Amino acid sequence: MSIGALLSATDLGMIRGERILFRNVSLAAHAGDAIVLRGANGAGKTTLLRILAGLTRPETGKVDRSAPHHWIAHREGLKPHETPFTHLGLWARAWGTSAGQIDAVLDKMALIRPSGVSARHLSAGQRRRTALGRLLLQERPIWLLDEPLTALDADGRELLLGMISEHRMRGGAIIAAIHGDAGFDSTCEVMI
Amino acid sequence: MSAAPIISAFRQALTEAWAGGAGALMPLGFFAGAAVLVPLGIGTDPNTLRAVGPGILWVALALASLVTLERIFQADVEDGALDLWLQTGAPASMIAAAKAFAHWLTAGLPLAILSPVFAVMFQAKADTSLLTHMGLYALGGLAFFFWGGVGAALSATVRRGGLLISLIALPLYVPTAIFGALAMSGGPGSTGAPLFLAASTLFALAVAPFAMGAALRLAAD
Q1: Nearest to A77 among B4, B21, B80 (CB)
Q2: Is ipTM strictly over 0.90?
Q3: Where found, per UniProt (chain B) (predicted)?
């Protein structure tokens, strides 16, 4: 494990079915880093993120996390009956943080108007903003983001990129799978 | 470790059940259907009905518990909530137990509470045995829902896993079904049966959460 890294992974390898998905992937995220995972569709970016999050066990190698992390994935974790307000309230309680900040988070994510609409009636972008709101509920140094820009409009992208740079300035690190350039200044890119 | 994630998982499962996610009223419909149709099917002789009533309700309870189990973990896999629960730092087994318990509260306990109403369909006499049976249905139902939860967790990533849940859960139902029916018969050899029923429920409560937790970790892997 490299010294002072928030998250480091060494020699990760993964097999899916009969195929080697990737191997010898190593990375270390320090305070302020933004690591972008690049690779074609099906190269294993999501699997790598799941390994970094501790959800999937790697075939080889190991992951060391020295700080808590946030997880934003393609599947947002919203229940069809949940509203942005109840979703954020539920996770604030589950994580033991103050629920008093939810209005501020909804405001920041521009979700005040649909805050009482159940997720089955929300647009894809609004669902994504709700999920991203979880990032603001609790300060956690590591953000693991899988295609976080999906479904966001121009304002949403700008908002998220702003959140990411604030997070990095506070000493956080992000590891994200991102397609295209998207005006994203990364400190390093990992090809898989 | 704090209990906050476990309580939140319980609350989410409760609200989800009432919001129609797991269809809390479906097992009740199934249970009521059995109670209404069986007397029509086997005739109106009060003595026959009285003899078979508790046993039929017991079987109906076991089968009704399987009706909505398919969704309790599968929905979490599909919408990504399972990934979030597994990253709360709380043991997966406790999250799973909270969800199975919430499911029993919304779908299983109502069946037990309404069982005296259905018992009347079987010409049961209105006496205190109805209350005893209510307690036995509640106790046995808890074991059914926890064992069923193991099947549900194991088949969480299988589309239309209903049949698989039945195949996994039904053998685990056997001890509870035997002791429950024996306890309700009140016949010879039934004196210790309620205690054996309670023991089988306790065993389910102690073992099933770990099986569910391991299965959910596998489902996320």
Answers
A1: B80
A2: yes
A3: Cell inner membrane
